[in-house]
Amino acid sequence: MRRNRADEWVRRLTRESNVTPGDLIWPMFVQQGARARTPVPSMPGVERLSIDLIVEAVGEAKALGIPAVAIFPVTPQELKSEDGKEATNSDNLVCRTVRAIKEKHDDIGVICDVALDPYTTHGQDGIVRNGKVLNDETVEVLCQQAFVQAQAGCDVIAPSDMMDGRIGAIRQALDDEALHDVSLLAYSAKYASAFYGPFRDAVGSAQNLGTADKRTYQMDPANADEAIREVALDVAEGADMVMVKPGMPYLDIVRRVKDAFGLPTFAYQVSGEYAMLRGAADRGWLDWEKVIVESMLCFKRSGADGVLTYAAPQIARLLGA
Ligand code: PBG
User: Fold this and answer.
1) Which residue of 35, 174, 195, 230 lies most exposed, with the fewest beta carbons within 10 A?
2) What average pLDDT is seen over the chain?
3) Which domain CATH number covers 36?
4) pLDDT confidence tier of residue 12, bands split at 50, 70 and 90
5) DSSP annotation of 116
6) 104 and 55 Cβ atoms separated by less than 8 Å
7) Counting Cβ atoms within 10 Å, is residue 102 exposed (0-12), middle (13-18) or buried (19+)?
8) Residue 5 domain flag
9) Residue 142 falls within a domain, yes or no?
10) Does 273 contact ligand 1 (Cβ within 6 A)?
11) Is the CB of 310 within 6 Å of ligand 1?
C-alpha cells in the first residue's frame, strides 16, 4: 500500500477527492449601517458587515473563485414581531443587500435563507400559536418571503425552516410569478442541533429563543432513515439541490443522500463546527490551516458537491497559495 504514498507526485495522482474554491459557499451576516463591522465573539474571525462592506466582500469572493455567497440578516430588535412579517418586506435588509450585490456583481450566485427566525420575537422559524409552530400558515408566509427575495434578484432560495410541503409550495409560488429561473436549495436534512449556537448569537436570535428549542420541526440527531424520507419529499416537490446540516458530525447522512439521489448535495459546516476548530486553533491546540483544509477533503470524500463554510475565503486563499 505504501508505494502509492511514497512521493507527493504519486499521492496527487492517486488522490480520490479534491477541494477547489469552486466547492465553497460563503455564508455572510449582514447588519444595518454604513462602513460598519461587528465581530461575532463566539466565531473568532467572523464579522457582521453593513451592506457596503458585504458588497466588497462579495467582490473578494469572486476574486478568490468562490461561486456563491449566502446572506443572513441581523434584524434590529424593533423590527422583530410575533409573526415575523418583516420577512416579507420587499425592502428589508436581505432584499436591499441582494439588490446592492447584484448592482455591482452579476456573475456570482446569491443564496438567501427562507425561515422566519431572524424576524420573530420568539426566535422560532415559523408562526406560533398556543405554543405550537403552525405548518401551513407558516408555509404561506415563507412563500411571500421567497417571492420578495427572488424579486430582489436572489439566484437560489434556500428554505431552512423544515416545515412540511414548503418546497412544493414555494416552487409553485415562484412559478406563478414567472420566477422560473430561481433555484431551490432545500435544507432537507436539517437537524435540531446545538451546533447552531454561535449562529444564533451572530444573528441575535439566541435571546429571542431563550430556553426553547426547534425539535418539533428540525430532525432528531438520532435519525438517518428519516433523512432519506425528507430528501425524497423535497426532490419530489422540486428541489434543485439538497443540503445536510450540520456537516462534519453528519457525514454519514451526506453519503447516504448522495448515493440515494445523485442530486447536487451540499453540506453546511455550521457555526459551532467553525467555532470548535477556530477556538482550538486560537489556543494553539490545532493547526488551523491544516484542519480546515482536511475538513473540506472529508466533506468531498463523503460525497458532498460543495460546502457552506464561514472559512470559505481563508480556504480559497490557502488552496491558491
Ligand atoms: C435559520 C438558520 C439557522 C442556521 C442557518 N439557518 C439556525 C437555526 O436553525 O436555528 C444555522 C447555521 C449555523 O449554525 O451556522 N433557520
Assistant:
1) 35
2) 97
3) 3.20.20.70
4) very high
5) S
6) yes
7) middle
8) no
9) yes
10) no
11) no
User: pLDDT tens, 236-269?
Assistant: 999 999 999 999 999 999 999 999 999 999 999 9
Scan for cell 409573526, then name that residue.
83
Domain of 37, in residue numbers: 21-320
Distance 196 CA to ligand 1 centre (A): 6
User: In testing the pocket of ligand 1, which one of 160, 215, 269, 307 has its CB within 8 Å of the most ligand atoms?
Assistant: 160
State if residue 199 touches ligand 1 by the CB under 6 angstroms criterion: yes
pLDDT band at 195 (very low <50, low <70, confident <90, very high): very high
Per the structure, how many domains does the chain have?
A: 1
Q: Is 85 in the active site?
A: no
Tell me if residue 258 is catalytic: no
Task: Output the nine-digit C-alpha cell for 289.
Answer: 490551516
Residue 81 is placed in which grid cell?
414581531
Among 80, 190, 258, 300, the one annotated catalytic? 190
The response to whether residue 162 sits with its C-beta less than 6 Å from ligand 1 reads: no
Quote the CA–CA distance of 216 and 312 in Å, as a whole number. 32
**Tens of pLDDT along 57-66?**
999 999 999 9
Q: Is the pTM of this model over 0.90?
A: yes
Residue 276 belongs to a domain? yes
pLDDT at 106: 84
For ligand 1, mutation pick of 111, 117, 214 (most atoms within 8 Å of CB): 117
Q: What is the pLDDT of residue 237?
A: 98
7 lies in a domain?
no
* Predicted confidence (pLDDT) at residue 187 exceeds the cutoff of 90: yes
